[in-house]
Structures are given as C-alpha cells and as structure tokens.
Design goal:
- It is a single chain.
- The protein has about 900 residues and is an all-beta fold.
- The chain is about 5% helix and about 45% strand.
- It contains 4 helices and 67 strands.
- The chain has a 6-stranded mixed β-sheet with strand order 45-47-48-43-44-46.
- A hairpin with a 5-residue loop joins strand 6 (about 55-60) and strand 7.
- It is elongated.
- The termini are far apart.
Amino acid sequence: MRAILCGLFLLTGAFGFSQREAANWYFGENAGLSFNRGTPEPLLDGQLTTIEGSATISDTDGNLLFYTDGVMVWNKNHELMPNGQELKGSPSGTQTAFIVPNPVDANLYYIFTTDDALLSDSGQFNGFNYSVVDMTLDNGNGDIVEKNNNLLSVGSEKVTGVLNFANNFYWVITHFVDRFYAYRVDGNGVDPNPTVSIVGPTENNFANGRGSLKIAPNATKIAMSYLVVAPRFDTSLHLFDFDANTGIVSNAIAAPKDGRAYYGLEFSSNSKKLYASGVNYNTNNTLSNVEVVQFDLETPNFFSNETKVLSYPNSQIFVAGALQIGLDKRIYHSFFNTRLSVIKNPNGDEGFVNASKFEVELGGRRATLGLPPFIQSFFETIFSIENLCLGETTTFTPEDTTDIVSISWDFGDPDSGSDNISNTLIGEHEFTSTGTFIVTIDVTYSSTAVRQFIEQVEINAPPNVASHAELVQCDVDGIDDGITTFNLMESIPQFSNGNPSLRVSFFRSEAEAILGNGPIEPIGYNNQVSNETVFARVVGDSECFSIVEITLRTEPMSYLGLYDTLYVCDGVISDIGATANLRVIVEQLEEDFNGSDILLFESQTDALLELNVLPVRNYTFDGQDMRMVYFRIENENDCAFIGKVEVVVLEAPFFEENITANLCDGSFELTALEGFENYLWSNGAEQRNSVVFETGIYDVVFSTGTCSYVQTVEVLPTPEIEIEEIRINDFAKNNSITINIGPNENPDTMLYSIDSGLNVQTTNTFNNLTPGVYSLFLDNGCITFGKEVVVGGIQNFFTPNNDGTNDLWALDNPEFFPGASLSIFDRYGKLLAILNGNDSGWDGNYNDRQMPSDSYWYALQLADGRIVKGTFSLKR
C-alpha cells in the first residue's frame, strides 16, 4: 500500500533558526493555537482581541515570546510588555504586524507595523514603521527599546518576509501605490534604505489598502491582493517574480476580472500552489459566497484555471478572511466562527485537495478575519514524502539535489534502533507505530553552510475494513450466463464497517488497485466472466488505503414487462406536471406480491442497479398525467421480479359530499360531476343525469379507473317560497315596494312582479308607485307566490264645487288602514277637522263655513304607530 503526499506535513528550513518560531498563534477574539505537538491545540490564555491582523513569535524550541495586535504587545506571561503600547499598527489591518528575529543576535526582534485603510477619511496616516524588542530586559520577558521608527509616511496594510539563506539576512517587503519596498534585516538591524521596484498595479485610493502580501517559502514568487471596494467592488490579484539576492520584484501577472474581490493569500510549502480567498460580487455590487481557490503555478494560464476548495454562504461581509500556513504545512482559513477551516494537503493537484470547513476547534474562542503571518521560510518544503501509512517504507526525496553534498537523517523513532539514523541522499524509514514523528534533517550544501530542516510527519493506519465482500446482482436478460450489469457501490456497506468518510474506487486487478491505475466505472459495470473478482481501493482521511476483494455473483430475475395500469387518485395537476403520492402504487403492488419489499424507479437500468430510487411522497411526473414507472420486487435471495406499470395521476375532484334539492313540478334531475368514465346511481341509473319523481336519498358513484368518489343527494318535497319581509314605503313622494326573500332561496333564479306576473323583473324593488292595491307575484323557477298589498296615499288637492269630481279630500283606500285618524289644520295650525275610518272625507267647510282656496296641513296617525305629515291644496 502506498499513499503519495508531497509536502503534506511539516517541513522547515533552518539557518540559525528552526521553524518552531511559528509554533504559537494568537488571533481573533482571545483565540489561539499551539502546533508544538503537531496537531493544533487551542490556547485559551490570549489577551488580544482583533477584527483582522495580529502577529506572534516563539523561540527556536517553540516557547512563546510575545504577540501583538499592532498597537499593544503582550509578553509570554500575557502581560503588557514595558513600553508595549501605542504602536502604530491597527487591529483592523489585514497584516497589521510582522515580527522578524535578528539573524545574528537571538535576543533582538523587530515588530513591523502597517497602515490602516480606515484612516482614509481622517487624512492622518500611520505609515510603515518598526519597533525593536530586547528579550534580555524585564527578567527575560522583553522590553521595547525603540518604538515606531518610521520607514514610510503612508502605506498599505501589507507586509511579508523571507530569509536569504546564502547570506543570512531577511527581506521584509511592503507595497504602496505602484511600488514594492524591500527592507534588509541583518545582524546590524533594519536598513532604512529599501530596494524599490516599480511594477504591477497602481492603487491610488488609500481606502483600498486592505488585502494580503505573501512571498513563496522558496523566496522566488510574491503574490499580492488589493481588496478594492471603492468606488465599487473590483478584483486585484497579481503574482510577481522575486530575487532573494537583490530584493527586486518583477514580471507582474494579473488575475482576470472574475467577479471576486480577493483578500487572503498563501503559498503551499513547496511554493507550487497559490491559494486566495475572495468574496464574489456581481455587476450590481451585490455580494454572494466567500470562496477559497487554488492556482497551480506550474500550469499555463494558471489564473484562468482555478480549483475551488472552500465555499461559504455570505451576503454582508466583503472581507473574505486570512489564509495562513502552519507548521504542519496545512493552510488555515479564518472566517467568523469558533473553528478554523483547513486545507489538509495544499501541495495536492487539482481534484486531490482535501479541505474541510470549520474543523479546527478553538476551545470556544472565536476567530474573526485575521491570522498571524510569519517569515515564510519557516514553511519551505524541499522534499516530496511518500508512503505515510503504517507498514510502508516512508520515503523522503529531495526535489533538487544539484547543490546537495550530503544529508543526515534522524527519523525521531528511537524504537526502531539503529534504523533511526541514516546518511543516504534519499531518506527511507519504516516507522514502528502510528502517530506524529519529528524528523530532523541536516543538509550540507556546496554553496552554503549546513541547513537544518525539521519535518513533522504523521503515520496512520490503513482503514479498518473487511478484506472480502460478495455482491449479488440480478440478471434479467433471460440468458443464464452469469453476466449482467452491476452497481459496485452497493458493495461498500459490506466492508466499510459503517465509516461514511471512506473514498472507494474499483479496479479489475489487485495490482491496479494498489497503484491506483485504471479505475473502472462502478455504476453500470458489466462483469467479464461469471463470478468475477474485482478489487476496491479504500482510502481513509489519512490517505492510507486498504484493498478489498469483491466477488461478483448473479442470480436470475424475472422481467414482467408491462404489468398493469395503476391509478393515483389524489394527485395535483399543474403546469409543471403531475405530482403524486407513489405510496399508493407501492401498496397496490404489495397486495399482488404478498407484502414483498418494493422499490420504484424511472428506468429499467435504475431498477436493475438500484439507482435513483423514486420518493414515494410528492413525486412529480414532468408535463404529463400518465407515465411509466419501473418496480423491483426483492425476496430473501435479493432477486425476484422487475416490471413496469403505467401510472395515471388524477386530481381529486372538489365537490360537496352531501347536498339537498327539491322536487319541482313533481320531478328533479339528478346531476353528477362531469369528466368521469363511469356513473352509478342508487336507483340503478348509469348515466351522469337521472330524473326522479319521488323524494328520498340518492347516492351516485362516479369513477375513472380505480379512482371512485361518492356523492349523496337528498331530494325534498317542493317548499313554499320563503318571504322574509315585504317592505312598503308609502305616503311618500317616491312610493316603493321591496320583497326580501329568505336565505334558502336563490336570488339569481327569482322573478318579481306587482301585476300578477304580467310584467316581471329580476330585482326585488319597485319604485315610483302611485297609491293603490298591487298583486305581488314571485316565481323561483319551480313554484310561485302571490299576495295583494296596498300602497297608501293622500290626495294632493281637492275641488269642493259639487261637480262630482274631487269634491271630498280623504285617505286613499281607507279600508286597508283601520284605526287610522286624519287631522286637518289651516296654515296657522288651527284644527279644522278629524277624519276616522268611517268618514267619507272633508268637504272644505269649517263650522258650516266654506274655507278659502289655500294650502292646508294634515297629520295622519296610523294604527301601527306611524305618523305621516304633509300639505294639500283646496281649490275653488
């Protein structure tokens, strides 16, 4: 078994230092990690709280020295260092601080601080500065002896650094506007006169100063991002060449404008892969996902061929979070959470990068958007590492042996005895157990002094799986030759021991499986011979693998063809298709096949390979109400039947289950819902309509296929028309009659008349009526209603001249108003006469004296309590 992992684990170069200077991290909201034992462990004693950048440094043995948020500095006891306040960095800077050791004096350190893009509105800038820490002071806890030595009056939020191994000095690099500034840090301290390179993009807007600057661990490349937010989001990501001898930056290569605003950057330990974090945006300046992508720098047009390794839903935050490589050579990504995300094998090629979101615990502390940067030389890998599984010979191969004279190996495995030490050019060692081993490698170069690399490797056991499995598949072609189509993925539960994280590929031979060469397509595999054996290569999280032998066996299965037409009676028909509960189909088949296990599929191939099992609830057939569905019947031998059914999906009709009706003219026509194939009334009629002549209860069953529905109609005797009120508005200028029918009557079918039906109307009110007697008539289409009503009135004038016309003034139709009393007044309110029901009328006299022509007043008191008042005229 072999697992090839190039630079997956810790590898550091040391020229007067070892990579353990990066063993401790402090960042975020009091968060921290220690890499001293290989696997990152939470640190809960950190004092800094920062939204973005921070910096940390340890000694060569991995003991914490101090850390900073760019403004304050805490010592190893997590106390503020003397003079350790008011540094000119900012907790909101991308790379707010960067710590560099003096390459000669192990007690001196330099804290470089960057500017803050948030100061763009104030017009006051921090610039690019450095402060000096002397660790011999304050009882070995350190003291700042020089503070805020200014190198640039205005700057960006970017800084990175690398070691020149040949001459034992560091380059510290920053960028502002259109040029790079490379400062030399050697035994004499910081040279304030930088190497300046004018190359690449120009960013004049100070507000866009966010973004990262990272140099490759082998000091040959520099990557830079500007998080452009003003006047709108934009992409700025570039790669450059770097000369570690001169500090010159050259040959700018720009990433295309791909709608992603980049922020965090990091190189893989072998310097061949570049990773970048960015927030996607559209032309409307709207944000979407945060993504981390890989660029393979050894491929042509690498910026146009990215590999996405992490993605986070996002809609508000435009800062995509920092990327930082650790001592384990894994790259960590920080985004608001109580865990960090991790890229486990950053040196991996496209398709083989293993990354996990929010996997690394922080002990309940919270990460924000920054991680501490370090001298990139701490993380350089010059070896490819192969075979990291227990029982294999782990091999360490130098990628370039041109300048190497000799190599001395200490594999950190004392239990292996004399095999723990080697002086071969290629290191080979079989580790005695699983776990993390510290491998110390002293490399003698012809051109420089001896360099020491420390490699931290993790040896893992191969996955715990069964060594053999048997996969039984059904053969439906009717030929008993042991040849059929298999879904090899169905064998995984037999050997995986319930481990869901295993990665499995299949091969025809064991040799191919061991090498991982020529995998076969697992779904739809046609075996070559009866009882063929294939091999599964099973890979766990550690990239170690086991080989499983799988025997392919066939059993005959009957193909039933088109078995039946089955109906779903309560589906939903819409523009997109027919949605059905297929559990109904399963239940009908279960009745036919004695409760066997039944699965449904869209195709015969899916049924054979048991792929894409249809859901039994809310499955939608596209566009049609009739489709084919394949079913698979299994018994204790796995194979029984495959067949298909035609599924007809009907939508359950909406109707009242119980209704009432009335006989009309001695009959009633029963009518069922239209659109069904069959009808059956309880009186024996088999049509949709049936006429009955008697009262009673009638049921109708209407059906299509096996879908049937029942409605009950109760036929009642013919009722009287229900009159709720007849309202007469009389003794008025506009007399009217309104007929209000009862709630059980249908106003849409009612006809109204006031002349015994000679003239009818559909409205229930008659206006502008003269006083008189009217014959009301109502017709609801089945029965009629009649009644006489009177509209009361009083004459407007009378002419008492004994000509036989209008000689008396009286109430019209007084016989319809018994008990009425009519009082007559002159214009001065004098009572002239009172008329009762038996009086024929007023003759215009008062006390045997004729009253003159004039207007007179009346007050009519009706028996129902109404009082009607008005005027009339006497004319002579």
